[in-house]
Amino acid sequence: MSDHGRIVPPGGTIGIVGGGQLGRMAALSAAAMGYRCHIFCPDEDSPAAQVSAQATVAPYEDTEALDRFAASVDVITYEFENLPTASFARMGAVTPVRPHWRCLETTQHRVTEKDFINSLGIGTAPYRPVASLDALEKALTALGRPAVLKTATMGYDGKGQVMIGADDSASDAFAAMNGQDAILEGFVDFEREVSAIVARGIDGSTVAFDVVWNIHRNHILAETHAPAPIPEDLSDQAKAIASTLADALDMAGLLAVELFVTRDGKLLVNELAARPHNSGHWTMDACYASQFEQFIRAVAGVPLGDGSRHSDAVMTNLLGDDIDQWRDVLAEENAKLHLYGKAQARPGRKMGHVNRVFPKR
User: Domains in the chain and their CATH numbers?
Assistant: First the structure.
């Protein structure tokens, strides 16, 4: 069906596909605004289902379960990209999907994503699609070494990628892709990574959050500092890029844009996510309307809130056994603890986060 700009008032039901921590925090924001959430996820006792009114536990390709789910909710959204677009196309014939399922087609495939970004005149790292060892060797000749070979789909937190240095074997790197389509990205000498998150309503209005600085360890986001220590004009450029991309996608929802700040002061887009993002968690305690509230507002079709920052903040991810620090965190005066309800801590697994809030400079 066409979206037709349907507005879902408080009291309605928002369907969230995916049961992770992003769905959990979105459902908590939805509940605060008077909405119910229905989670669709193949896992029992998912973090999102723990705090939601209803859950369907079924595979993402289960057509009967998808049909029941779509008929039971007023609008459908998703909390991660690695989902079958055919399932959303099917549900979208019954109930509006926001952001629309074609956003998934763009953002879940790295080559399609970069082609889209470049088509708007926005820069990325140089790249080549790789579907064979011969294609990889030609791409390495074109882009040089070092370079990063990544699976075109399904990769996150450093999974599904291999750095190819001067002495590394191209065949070994290609074998690590396990037969999946891949992308080779040229090396970018960057000073820091930042991200810009923008909410876009069904009326095309946009509200951008302040740009933040992201620090990674072992390819996983460790800290986000708000605001980013970059010049104001560069921050404005990052927000403008995010808004341009959201407009071009014609989306209703939230778009997170990860960018490299190069040594010579330019911005290059690294990745997109058409959903709430780990680098936006600081907004829960340092903005008038968090990324999750804005996400729910946009998906429901109601006016966007005030995303301005009232405090500075540092978000720290609690990975694996870091969750054991919960008692110390609760004793800190300026710290806000957010745990995700996951039963088992594993190395690198995101178990929660801490927002440390400071007076705005």
Answer: 13-97 (3.40.50.20), 126-186 (3.30.1490.20), 190-359 (3.30.470.20)
